[in-house]
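Q: Hi! First time doing this. I have a protein sequence and I read that you can turn it into a structure. Is that right? Here it is:
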Amino acid sequence: MRLRQIALVGQDLDAAKAEIVDVLGLGGDYPDPGVGKYGLRNAVWPVGDTFLEVVSPQQDGTTAGRLLEKRGGDGGYMVILQCDDLDGARERVKSEGVRIVDQFDGDGVAFTHLHPKDVGAAILSIDHMVPKERWQWGGPDWAANVKTDVTTGIVGAELQGPDPEALAERWAAVLGLPRGTVADGFRIPLEGGELRFVQATDGRGEGLRAFDVAARDPDAVRARARARGRLESNGEITLCGTQVRLKQA
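A: Yes, that's right. Below is the predicted 3D structure, encoded as structure tokens:
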């Protein structure tokens, strides 16, 4: 399993795009027309060969819109993992009694979106691509939008809840991966990254709290965030209602 894409939800897509591109030093984005069926519009950027997405509701009654209301504003929305063994992953999802909210099988591309109430904290999608380096959701020419002089990849995600141990156990069972501990919670290792599970302390309930980005010069990225008013007093960067944790590339 590899963490390949993080999705955030924002009320104002254009404002979120401007801040994200500036702070993280990203290139061009891809507006995926496929999200229109969910009542959304979006932007997807490559961060190295991983991806960051922001979705924004364009009609009433969307899952994204309900999440904005439930959590009191912009924030984390979705975690997308890429797997090699699609059949095995889907069989495990079935055996764990997880409902599937959407599923697709195409020419070398497949996804399975899992019900967040059956997994916890966020929509989890398990995707499969052939060839492995392909990423359909970044658009056919995503490699032309790669810009890595500031940031080079997404390497982690942090999910919060009232019982982080139970949340970690559930994700580990659904993914068929081991669960370990870290100083302030629990951890599931992934290819080239990790998922972390921590106590919810911000009053926003369960959700995707943060994602980790590898940066060539973390201090320079913090300076970009400060100029945008997105650097908190504790040194944390917040973009689209979600904390960004910088790792040295």
